[in-house]
Amino acid sequence: MGGMSEKQxxxxxxxxxxxxxxxxxxxxxxxTLILEIAPPAKNMFSFLKDTDEIxxxxxxxxxxxxxxxxxxxxSAIQLREKGxxxxxxxxxxxxxxxxxxxxxxxxxxxxxxxxxxxxxxxxTGEKWSEEMNGAWAEAYDQLATAxxxxxxxxx
Length: 155
Ligand code: HEM
Known about the structure:
The protein is mainly alpha-helical. It has six helices and no strands. About 70% of the residues lie in helices and about 0% in strands. Helix 2 (about 25-35) packs across helix 3 and helix 5 (about 105-125) packs antiparallel against helix 6 (about 130-155).
């Protein structure tokens, strides 16, 4: 799979640098979009299962949003440095089993991708570009592939 140019890596890093200063809004928006795109996804998340509203200040909600964004950003860096996404073996095994156990299936990764790209677009405003979008998409896809492969290996 393809690597990432310095420009692409920089676009991902710069946008994450801005977004990470507003984690409460970012994570709320991200989950709102996930549930807009796929309402049934709600039941997989422990912190959403029994509520009608997305909780405003939930640490688990924030943790998942931050993990997805941060790991995608790290993937962009690895793709530029090494030409591939490298997740530590133990981390990957853990990620594979957590998601399997929660009932996550491959199409859910497309839902989260769409929500991630839309969150980036809204958060970066006039700084947003097709190239920035493409770089986030590529980094996410390769990370998601690593997790999905692990899930398939464990299933
Ligand atoms: C849990 C990362 C995609 C659903 C987790 C955890 C991590 C993580 C690190 C463990 C959180 C913890 O216990 O501290 C990621 C990354 C993703 C991804 C990096 C994509 C690149 C998805 C997708 C779904 C999903 C596509 C389904 C829509 C869940 C659920 C949990 C979880 C339901 C358990 C959270 C809870 O109820 O507390 N994920 N995830 N994840 N993930 Fe993901």
